[in-house]
Amino acid sequence: MANDLIQQNPWDELRAHTSARIALGRVGCSLPTREVLKFGLAHAQARDAVHRPLDFGELKHQLHTAGFRTLKVRSNAEDRQTYLLRPDHGRHLHGDCRVQLQHELPAPELAIVLADGLSAVAVQRHALPLLQAFRERFTTDWANTPVVLAEQGRVAIGDGIGEALRARLVVVMIGERPGLTSPDSLGLYLTYAPRVGCLDSARNCISNVRPEGLPYQLAAHKLDYLARQALRLQLSGVQLKDDSNLQPVALQAD
Asked: Options 3.30.70.1350, 3.40.50.2000, 3.30.450.40, 3.40.50.11240; which CATH number does 56-233 get?
């Protein structure tokens, strides 16, 4: 009987094609109770994604088991509260960590940064399977390629990390700002010749990496194309176009 009170929206059939909140229906001048409850749950999941810490110990263990060389650093944001209130602190590598990286073996070509960002759950869930898919495509000295775990990091922290490791190319994998239908979306940012002070226009971005968005294999295909082109052309950002859709995608079983 309760469903009889709901006036359906004529766009209702479009809901099968999107997770966006459209065609919710109404009861009088209000939303149906189930939609109000779903919204509340999604909002809580988004808040949890922002505040939940990344389990760096578990992630490091998983990466070692998969054969990746890992390093651990932090930004100038000493805690989560500072990170959220002072974005500029999260963009800069802590001075002690810079010295640490300068004494490490230089990156043979590529440095990869995993930063918690605004959704640690995105990094916890998606970074490793994406890295494995990328490793199957991109040929480099993977045994010595550093995967740097960056605590309280934002995208620009990759500039200081790449510069300290003398990398030709840095790829930052970071938890994106959660949406009400995507609390675990992973973003990828690629920068050629990283250095402190790089502009955002010098980066290429691949967004919404997750099984419900851009699948791992397709994201790895795009990242492989952009990385190869960046190294070949010696540039990235607005000058580097993503024409990966012009090449066939070799899909492998997950």
From this structure: 3.40.50.11240
